[in-house]
Design goal:
The chain has 395 residues and is α+β, with helices and mostly antiparallel strands. Helices cover 47% and strands 10% of the residues. It has one domain: Cytochrome p450 (Orthogonal Bundle). The chain contains 17 helices and 11 strands. The strands form 4 sheets. Strands 1-2-8-5-3 form a 5-stranded mixed sheet. A two-stranded antiparallel sheet has the order 4-11. Bound molecules: protoporphyrin IX containing FE. The site of protoporphyrin IX containing FE has 27 residues, from α12, α13 and α17.
């Protein structure tokens, strides 16, 4: 007897499956069409995959809580009691966000543009015709931690060491994943460093206070501990994601040379291309939540006390929200996407992420308007929080 066609088999969306993570698009489409309120019995979670449903759930913090964790492995009955605002609900979240927003301003972000452009030029300089280059390891993954140390105001002399520690926090062990001793020790080291730096900043006389983000945080109503936790959150939320987006740009523009030629000919399209990259291959594909109360949607009830995954990257491919959603088009005008989240937890670093991606893409195309990805040597990254590339070798 022949086996049933793939599209008649039960849908098995296992987010820990690295092979599925390479191409989840068909499974996501079936979820959107056949099981918009999806339940995975064995792994014990629910998932929403349509744009409207994901956006609704991201907004509804009274039902879909962040305080029990936002990653499948860590979602549990127990509230985390974390000081990191991404793991809190209103009203605790409202207080933290309003305090940090005063220090992490649009002005402070915009001021970094010149430095970001200079970093991009330095990193891309060694990539000369005929030389091998890894657009993730030699460029995309380095840029965000270099920007982060400048944003926080880490002294020049410590920059290299702090960047190494930030990069080590993302060290993932095969079969163990990103929550391992090496990454844990790096987090401890960064925490201790930032605590000390903050103390040193606080000890400076008022006239000598620097105008960096840490000093801005000191002027807020946050406790010293809350300031450190926020700086740690920035270092984790604001580095790997940007690196992955640049990796996606390298791969997708190589796969779509016509789109790359459009961008090289007209750099004013780059901001649109950044939004299209975010929609098409969002680096942060899944946001975890815990239900505080039952919710019925499309005739299915998700009980209170359930783990729910909000598939923001599936939402980006939803034909109900985007015409011809599987087509990558840098000219597409995107009015909204959920790749930076939505509602109260909307990515606080979105302006910086957009700035870094825009400057990086512009620099990349100016240095080399064409490149070829060596697929046999390129390697995917699969962790619980990001989707993208670990190595993209090009020539
Ligand atoms: C392409 C790059 C990025 C992507 C795709 C991204 C994506 C996201 C998403 C989806 C959320 C919402 C999480 C949730 O609802 O649970 C989020 C929140 C957050 N992001 Fe980003 N992010 C990026 C870059 C950055 C950068 C550069 C920074 C900081 C410098 C940053 C800082 C944050 C913070 C602090 C939050 C938590 C906000 C809150 O809880 O109120 N992100 N990001």
């Amino acid at each position: 007897m022949s086996s049933p066609p793939i599209d008649r088999l039960p849908i098995d969306y296992d987010p820990t499956d690295a092979a599925l993570d390479v191409a989840p698009y068909d499974v996501w489409r079936r979820m959107r069409d056949e099981a918009p309120v999806y339940h995975h019995e064995r792994l014990g979670f629910w998932a929403l995959s349509r744009y409207d449903d994901v956006a609704m759930a991201l907004r509804d913090t009274a039902t879909f809580s962040s305080a029990h964790g936002n990653v499948l492995e860590f979602l549990s009955e127990q509230e985390l009691q974390s000081g990191m605002m991404i793991l809190t609900d209103p009203p605790a979240h409202t207080r933290l966000r309003s305090q940090v927003a005063r220090a992490f301003t649009v002005r402070r972000t915009a001021r970094l543009e010149g430095e970001i452009a200079a970093i991009c030029d330095d990193l891309l300089a060694p990539w000369t015709p005929g030389e091998p280059f890894d657009l993730v390891q030699d460029f995309g993954a380095l840029l965000p931690s270099m920007v982060m140390t400048r944003l926080l105001g880490v002294p020049e002399d410590d920059g290299e060491q702090v960047r190494t520690v930030i990069d080590t926090m993302f060290y993932a062990l095969p079969d163990v994943g990103m929550f391992n001793d090496v990454a844990g020790a790096a987090m401890g080291e960064l925490d201790a460093y930032l605590t000390d730096l903050l103390e040193r900043r606080a000890a400076l006389p008022a006239d000598d206070q620097a105008d960096d983000l840490l000093s801005g945080l000191l002027r807020s109503d946050l406790t010293r501990r809350e300031c450190v936790e926020f700086a740690m959150l920035l270092a984790t939320a604001g580095t790997e994601t940007v690196g992955r987006l640049i990796g996606w740009a390298a791969v997708l523009l190589d796969q779509h040379p016509d789109q790359r030629a459009l961008l090289a000919a007209d750099p004013s399209l780059v901001p649109r291309a950044v939004e299209e990259l975010l929609r098409f291959e969002g680096p942060s594909p899944v946001q975890g939540r815990w239900t505080k109360r039952a919710m019925t949607l499309h005739g299915v009830t998700i009980p209170a006390g359930s783990k729910v995954l909000l598939l923001t990257s599936s939402a980006g491919r939803d034909e109900r929200a985007y015409p011809d959603a599987d087509r990558f088009d840098v000219r597409r005008v995107i009015e909204h996407h959920v790749s930076f989240g939505y509602g109260v937890h909307f990515c606080l670093g979105a302006a910086l992420a957009r700035l870094e991606s825009r400057v990086a893409l512009t620099a990349l195309l100016a240095h080399h308007p064409t490149w070829v990805v060596e697929h046999e040597r390129s390697v995917r990254a699969h962790t619980s929080t990001v989707r993208g590339w670990e190595h993209v070798h090009v020539h």
